[in-house]
TrEMBL record:
Cellular component terms per the entry's GO annotation: cytosol
Protein name from the UniProt record: Acyl-coenzyme A thioesterase 12
Annotated keywords: Cytoplasm, Fatty acid metabolism, Hydrolase, Lipid metabolism, Repeat, Serine esterase
CDD domains membership: BFIT_BACH
């Protein structure tokens, strides 16, 4: 297997001026044109790292936050965040700048996966990305979490569809006054792939296919709203197979469902070469779901009419759109709420809650300007203040292997053996091998009721020796565990452990906690007076780990 890759990874910046040919009737940059530019920039970054030709494998959900107008400058920055043997995650950031005011705004932040195209029959194993900055390290760590979401997306979707099936007659009759038949929104378009649409190997550009999909989807949506729809987001583009110069691409678009001010359009792409075209043997190469809204001349959102599926497949797509919307809203909520203390634990958002759990701990650990406030033998205490949030870091030197410390600290049923603030701890739900939900109670403070918590604990093992083990903690809301009048329900914003290996028999354990008033009593007072309590808890933690570790 050949190893290829530039050590520093791919880092590409592309600037474009928006000309009238790139714009729609409102003078705004066409979403299809922007998708082509994004794909081209990301592909350049992937090829810069791989050193060989690369093809688009998928593009994660894309949200368009701002519109670019004729005369403005579009800047697209693309960078390889992580290499996974033969594939890479590329981060894409799009900004728009007004040349007259010099104001710059973010248009979109997206992530794409590219695959190195093998030379001949051999396989290519990509070199790891060289991490040069704190941001590089952050994105490198979080790329693993985003990959977990990609791989688990289909299972989450199927679970939601099963829930929908249980709630009622899934394929029953559908009757609603003034509903529009989905048959009226069906659009088919055929494109012939020519050399300008492909790379130097003859493979059709993924961005070109995305642009054609946006065009046909826009026509489908316009038949429902009788206006000019605006693309706001795209559910994951996934390329199932290649197409090449000379192929005929058949695009079929239809409205799946409407949600008051938005509409989802599904697009299926099939490819045919000359022989397949004659025999009507299609190759399914791509499917995607595009979400549009529409505005009037005053910029006010228009309301879409309800739709009426007319077939069993139409009903499946109708319910599928509802499931995807739940996932989409969960993603938007999780990834936009920086400091939301407690998240609902539901089928639609579990992947994003665990992502935000790990991401929050990773970002907290990477914050600059930590101030050391206390030292004691094998313990160091650091603090970081930002607004009304005080963050705590306790660094402990422990004489046991890192993997053993990880095993003991990730099982919270052991916590009460060394942390006096844990009175009881029970597992409510073992989600999978890496995620568990616990119910925790804490002893009462003078004059106050005892506190309780419902927390998600996410554990991650390192992918390489230089990375830490991670145990992330945050509060979640379970409908099966509502607040009790006997306890004061408290929230954990962000907490957890990072465990670094120092040798075969020692490690450094770093405990983190973002603290707000009432979350940790011994930190609610001034920190100087409470440092003794923190040190005592840390000493008990070290004692527990080393005692347990000696038995293995």
């Amino acid at each position: 297997m050949e190893r290829r890759g530039a050590a520093a990874g791919g880092d590409v910046c592309v600037c474009r001026t928006v000309f009238p040919a790139h714009a729609n009737h409102r003078g705004e940059l066409s979403a299809g044109q922007l998708l082509k530019w994004m794909d081209a920039a990301a592909c350049l970054a992937a090829e810069k790292h791989a050193g060989v030709s690369c093809v688009t494998a998928s593009m994660d959900d894309i949200q368009f936050e701002e519109a670019a107008r004729v005369g403005q400058i579009i800047t697209i920055k693309a960078k390889v965040n992580r290499a996974f043997k033969t594939s890479m995650e590329v981060g894409i950031k799009v900004t728009v700048q007004d040349v007259l005011t010099n104001v710059e705004k973010i248009v979109s932040v997206a992530y794409a996966t590219y695959v190195a195209k093998p030379v001949g029959a051999g396989k290519i194993e990509l070199e790891p990305v060289k991490l040069l900055s704190t941001d590089d390290h952050l994105e490198h760590t979080l790329a693993i979490e985003r990959r977990r979401i990609r791989l688990g997306y289909e299972q989450v979707f199927q679970n939601l569809m099963q829930e929908s099936n249980k709630e009622g007659d899934y394929y029953g009759t559908f009757e609603e006054e003034d509903a529009v038949s989905t048959d009226l929104t069906h659009v088919q378009s055929i494109e012939l792939v020519q050399p300008p649409h492909a790379n130097h190997h003859g493979n059709t550009f993924g961005g070109q296919i995305m642009a054609w999909m946006e065009t046909v989807a826009s026509i489908s949506a316009s038949r429902l709203c009788h206006s000019y729809p605006v693309l706001k987001s795209v559910n994951m583009f996934k390329f199932w197979g290649p197409s090449v110069v000379g192929d005929r691409l058949v695009f079929n678009a239809i409205v799946n469902n409407t949600f008051r001010n938005s509409v989802e359009v599904g697009v299926r792409v099939e490819a045919y070469n000359c022989e397949e075209w004659i025999k009507d043997q299609a190759r399914h190469i791509n499917s995607a779901f595009l979400i549009f809204n529409s505005v009037n001349d005053k910029g006010e959102l228009l309301t879409f009419p309800r739709i009426k599926p007319t077939t069993k497949d139409g009903m499946r797509r109708y319910h599928g759109a509802i499931a995807r919307r739940k996932i989409r809203l969960a993603r938007k909520c999780m990834l936009s709420a920086k400091e939301k203390p407690s998240d609902p634990w539901e089928t639609s958002n579990q992947a994003y809650v665990t992502y935000s759990n790990i991401a929050a701990l990773t970002h907290l650990a990477a914050k600059p300007a930590w101030e050391i406030t206390g030292t004691l033998d094998d313990i160091k205490i650091w603090t970081h203040e930002e607004g009304d949030v005080l963050s705590l870091k306790v660094e402990m030197q422990v004489k046991i292997p890192s993997h053993l410390a990880f095993s003991l600290l990730s099982d919270f049923t052991f916590r009460q053996q060394w942390d006096k603030h844990f009175l009881t701890c029970e597992v409510l739900q073992a989600v999978n091998e890496d995620e568990k939900i616990y119910y925790v109670t804490s002893p009462p403070m003078t004059g106050h009721k005892p506190r309780d918590f419902v927390i998600l604990v996410s554990q991650r093992q390192p992918c390489k020796p230089s990375e830490p083990y991670a145990v992330a903690v945050k509060s979640v809301t379970l409908t099966s565990m509502p607040p009790s009048p006997e306890y004061c329900r408290s929230e954990i914003l962000c907490a957890g452990f990072q465990i670094y290996s120092d040798s075969n028999s020692s490690c450094t354990v770093c405990y983190f906690n973002q603290v707000t008033s009432g979350v940790m009593p011994y930190l609610a007072a001034n920190l100087t007076g409470s440092s003794k309590s923190i040190e005592d808890t840390a000493l008990e933690c070290i004692k527990f780990l080393e005692l347990k570790g000696s038995k293995y």
